[in-house]
Amino acid sequence: MKRTIEHRVYTHDYNARTQLLESHVSMFEYGNLPDDINKMFLEYYLQCESMVCWTDKFREEKLLAVECTLAGDLDPYGLGQDVVAVTRNGQSLNLKRDVDCIVGFNNKTMRPCADIFTDAQTLGEIQTSIDFLIFWTRLSPLVRTSDDKMREKVVEAFRNIKKGIPVTLASKNVLAEFGIPDEITVTDLTQPDFADKIQYTARLYDDVLRWHYTRYGHATNGSSKMAQQSVEEVDATLSQSMILPLSMLNARREMLEKVNAMFGTNITVELSGAWRAEVTTFENESGEASIDGSSDDPEKEPDAAPEDEKEPEDKKKEEEKDDDKTKDESN
Length: 331
Fold this sequence. Notes:
Elements: H1 5-25, E1 28-31, H2 39-49, E2 51-59, E3 62-74, E4 80-86, E5 92-96, E6 102-105, H3 115-138, E7 142-144, H4 148-163, H5 172-177, E8 185-187, H6 194-215, H7 231-241, H8 243-263, E9 268-271, H9 273-286, H10 312-330
Antiparallel strand pairs: 1-9, 2-3, 2-6, 3-4, 4-5, 7-8
Helix pairs in contact: 1-3, 3-6
């Protein structure tokens, strides 16, 4: 199938969006999720549209999580109390927030992860640039001859070279004897120096991908400390990297607390394995308590109190022991 340049550009952008979306929707793991709720669509609505509606008013009292918008009857903060819930097969319902549905948000600011699409577009453009750089390094020299006879000889010479057959090089005098022009014009369309630019463009692709994942909990730029970086700078990168994932996790926990209370479910949510590993690294590096409030090391005993913080009674007992020891030595 013939693919146009426009199709290749679209394919690069589409592939980048697919890669980022696939990783984002796998960020969280849900427990006790009803069979009628598609986890992929649940996360897609939250991360790409900022909100999702939980309701059992669509189909035989079965709980669904569908896309929605807020409308009319604004609260003091301008958030609509009315909800327009829509399913992918074209059904829609007008509901009341916190009455017959629960609306959950992606994060504390109720915003989508818009950089999924902006970063994917950048990655697609970089891949398109790499395509064109490769194209320019593959072009062959354009040889111009004075007549068809000379063109045939040049083509035959190229074929012999490709087959490994030696090609005789005649001097200018020999060419003049046979009446062959001694000038063959060559226009070099090849840009071999573009090959050097490919590696830098490919590095830019990796950089954009790393920047994106660093914002969402994978501080890959801190995994190998550069000579110019201090330990404090690396720890700061780890801390900043966990802000968005933990905000998103807390927003989902608050959402599910309301869902469980209204619909009698027991749905839970946690970060998935790849993100839990990053949280563990963050906790070990920073010495902070884990995200569920427990200590990093439950078996670790508290440090002994300094001498000046000991209870007066304990000090008195130690002094009495010292006095008794002194008396025994004197006797």
